[in-house]
Design goal:
The protein has 261 residues and is of the alpha/beta class. It has 10 helices and 6 strands, in the order αααααααααβαβββββ. The chain has 2 domains: 146 residues, no CATH class; 103 residues. The mean pLDDT is 77.
Length: 261
Amino acid sequence: MEEFTHSPGNLTNVILLAIKNTTFNKPGPVLKYVFSYYSGPFMFSESFPTLLFVGFLFGIPFFNRNRLESFDRMLLKILIWSFFITLFGAFKMKGGLIPHVYWFTYILSGFWFYLCLKVLLYKFELELNRPNQIFLILILVGVVGLYGKQKVYIYDDRPEKILQELALDKNTKYVLHWKQDAKNFEQGDLAIGVLLRMERTGYHGCFLSEWGFLVPENLRCGQTKGLKHITFATPDAESEILIRLDPNTIVYKKNIVRIDQ
């Protein structure tokens, strides 16, 4: 919906950024990552080749699409297009920002499971009325989102610690940015965390247009004239303790953060 109400929308920005990037990620890691959203909820899927398992899941609604209702056939077309756009972006996008951009893939996989279940219910001559279908969709998306990828959660204290040490002015608006080279690209993870914490605690910040698709419209810079810049970079050596290089520059873990006066 955002794509049509605020053009160019997030989808357009993701595609344009992917086209602009000159890198092309290796097929093995990309396919493994994207397919994990579909195979992750099934513990037994580890016993099968991932490509074979996901292909089987995709084939259930695709080869039985004539038995689906008109709404479900339209949903299937949208999911097919969404999958290939997602795959294209994963091949072209850099660094650790992919998980931030691709959170919605849980929703796509949830809808795939819904279509698979609809086909199986049809084969057993069981039907669901429209309210029950909607309820089933919500349950599937929720279950997939909660249990799809089992990762150990490690609390990241960098956003709050760095924001506290920067001592920003709540009457000033800041532009957060980082370079698009291989060394500094992953700084976007921290920048997103700092920007969201700034928004929650009464500070004002924004992203440049090239990274605008990562945040809501109100956090995108309309213009940068007169705004202070916060630059995120990668140090040559990590530091587990926070080090202040000068009044406007700090180093913490894998990050150098500087306020440009």
